[in-house]
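task queued by scheduler; priority normal; single chain, no ligands, no partner chains; default sampling; output format set to structure tokens
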Amino acid sequence: MNISLIICTRDRCKQLARCLEVVERLEASKSWELILVDNGSVDATAITVASFARRFPRKFAYLVESRPGLGNAHNAGLGVASGEIMAFTDDDCYPAPDFLEQIWSVFAKDADLGYISGRIMLHDSRDVPIAVNESLAPLTFPARSFLPVGSVQGANMAFRRRTLLDIGGFDPFFGPGALFNAEDIDAAGRASAAGWRGRYCPEIVVRHHHGRKAPDAALQWRSAGIGMGAYHMKLLLQSGEWRWLMPNQVRRRIGMNRKWILWEAVGIAKFAHLHCMHGLRHSLSSTRRQNLRRSYDAE
């Protein structure tokens, strides 16, 4: 199998139905499969999927991942995927007809390319312009370089299979429904740290029909800001890459929304607390194992 297209969903059966109508019309010269992961929906998602499955002519898998969070859902999809390339979009997006063809073409031309992201157009001009990237300028992300938040977005991204295996998949603490809404940039950032190059390719296009209006923006900025803070703190604590962060972040904060910066501080604190608690639990568990071993040795 050449490409696995993974779409995760939760309680958005109407948006999902529209998305799947577009997916049916995708054109690709290479073999591909569709994997749909239901992250614990309680609406009519299962009915929508059953109707789609009866008419979809390609290899198709539908699975339920009850553990909340898009990181968990993506990992569930990876667990059954068989493609060389893992492509991702969201249940409220409409990929262009050549979406998969363009993704395959980019990876086929560069064997050392680990991940890519593409152009995300705002589908409805009445929606607030968030969670989009309409830039027409291609970008290359060198290996072991810092990736700013927003440079890789889950609505339009793809990874080489061995890249995701190299980094251990997606972090279950990241993604909508989990603690930190940044599973996409976190995975790409870890791929970069592991030595993989990436690209932003404007020729790979999806339209994002998120439906959010101006009053919804504050909640979105809050979620994005907390995710950004967690992503940055994770880089510092787990990779120690101060050289990535400091020069880039000083420049990016000029003119940045102040509320976003404040929410970033919340994300920094929350991830630091999580990191410390996990370290403490690991230390206590190691101590208990050592004490048990000494007791057995003494006997």
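post-processing summary
- The radius of gyration is 20 Å.
- The chain has a mean pLDDT of 89.
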